[in-house]
Amino acid sequence: MPAPTVLPRPAGDRLFVTDGGLETSLIFHQGLELPDFAAFPLLDREAGRAALRSYFEPYLRLAVERRAGVVLDTPTWRANRDWGARVGYDAAALDRVNREAVAFARELAAGAVAAGTAVVVDGVVGPRGDGYDPATLLVPEDAERYHAPQVASFAAAGADLVTAITMTHAGEAAGIARAAAAHGIPVAISFTVETDGRLPDGTALGDAIASVDAATDAEPAYYLVNCAHPTHFAAELAGAGAWRERVAGIRANASVKSHAELDAAEELDEGDPADLGCHYGLLREHLPHATVVGGCCGTDVRHVAAALRAWEA
Fold first, then answer.
1. pTM of the entire predicted model
2. How far apart are the C-alpha atoms of 249 and 15, rounded to whole Å?
3. DSSP 167
4. What is the pLDDT of residues 33-49, one digit of tens each?
5. Residue pair 189/167 in contact by the 8 Å Cβ criterion
6. Domain 16-312 maps to which CATH number in 1.20.1260.100, 2.60.40.1080, 3.20.20.330, 3.40.640.10?
7. Domain residues of the chain, as ranges?
8. E strands within the chain?
9. Nearest to residue 249, comparing CAs of 157, 156, 120, 103?
10. Bridge pairing between strands 119-125 and 69-73
């Protein structure tokens, strides 16, 4: 299948949707066990693939119904060396499963593509460490070496885009962007922020974007904010700064709780989909160039649909 003619970009003329909280949905809605929050091993058994299809298909239907594009993620947030080893995958197995994840996404997308929907198959790269806690701060050179194998797998399999999700600091994000450039594949960077709108390492969002752009000659196609409720970063986005023109997407949490509170929670906090949609709508004036709307922890297709309606309105 040829690469799509339209990729998400700031100030584009097409809206794209993503999925929501993959891992939280699989655990709390489908009752699956995901050791270390790793969803990619599901690709290695048919029941797991069926669970993934059941999860992703509503988002594809939403995009078709609303005439939006789709950024279709691979379930590979944990499919890197350190996390993979914890669930029994060596380098060869990770290369195989990352490639198969791209092929699986292409298979999932076939119906939507036939209906005329623009589908971007997105190879998801997660952090080397925890998506909430930057215990290990990587410099770009080390991050590039670490993440290059996964990026190479996505590029070889024909993914359209690589997105680094839940980045806690600029150094690791810059390294992934460099790895993508080296393998000739577009890249997007999505930063996690805390309740104060700053990255977990304390960096202001605008400063993190500027740092990655400076270290990579502005390689990322766009940036996103994810894994926080809109009320946590609305004030940060309301401030002045040309960096906001680089932010093309929002993937918010359903809950207003902090990361520490969510880590300690034993039940899923789904929040209120309609209320979350309203908060997306309030962000619109601060992000006039944003074209990607999706969700993160605790969200499902109800939340993303509400966010899309608010964004369109």
1. 0.96
2. 10
3. E
4. 999 999 999 999 999 99
5. yes
6. 3.20.20.330
7. 16-312
8. 16-17, 69-73, 119-125, 161-167, 187-192, 222-226, 247-252, 292-295
9. 120
10. parallel
